[in-house]
Amino acid sequence: MKALKFRITILACLAAAMPVASFAQADAVSQEVRELRDRAEIEELLRDYGRTIDERDFDAFGRLFTPDGEYGAGPSMTVGPEAIAAGMRAIFESNALGFGEPNFHVFFNTVIDVDGDRASATSMSFYIVPGEDGLPEIALMARYEDELVRTGNGWKFRKRSVEGLMPAPN
């Protein structure tokens, strides 16, 4: 108890000696640090999206979404982590476009806007597959529009909409 009173006394003395502008500056710095941390965590979420797909870890992929999270293209959105994981698993297992392996995503042009416990992001990706000659080839290009939320377990996708920009070759 004495240690707590001592700390409070020291803080009161420091507060009395600190100009009001310093408190405002400290608060501004604290907000900037929080936003930088939020951006870093969101960038990690976006990387985890690509990593989990490329590793075919669809259960981990589904956990990147909130319980009411939505994922898909246009009007065909899948809702909920389990359904999202199952849908992605089915897409890769069917391999309807006949892509060879190894194949992977490359993400770029990420823009993140943080607003408290909510954020939005846009990004783009290439899907790289082996061409007929075995050399890497861009098979697909997409744009992502994201709604993100801070949860007790970090940032999650509330909604991730995918827009195909370049179709696979015939």
Describe it.
This protein is an alpha+beta fold. It has a single domain (22-166), classed as Nuclear Transport Factor 2, Chain: A (Roll), CATH 3.10.450.50. Helix content is 41%, strand content 39%. It is built from 4 helices and 6 strands; from the N terminus they run αααββαββββ. The protein has helices at 2-17, 20-54, 58-62, 81-94; strands spanning 65-73, 76-79, 104-115, 118-130, 136-151, 154-166. The protein has a 6-stranded mixed beta sheet with strand order 2-1-6-5-4-3. The longest helix is centred in the first third of the chain and has 35 residues, at 20-54. It is elongated, with a radius of gyration of 22 Å. The protein starts with a helix and ends with a strand. 16% of the residues are buried. The model has no long low-confidence stretch (mean pLDDT 88).
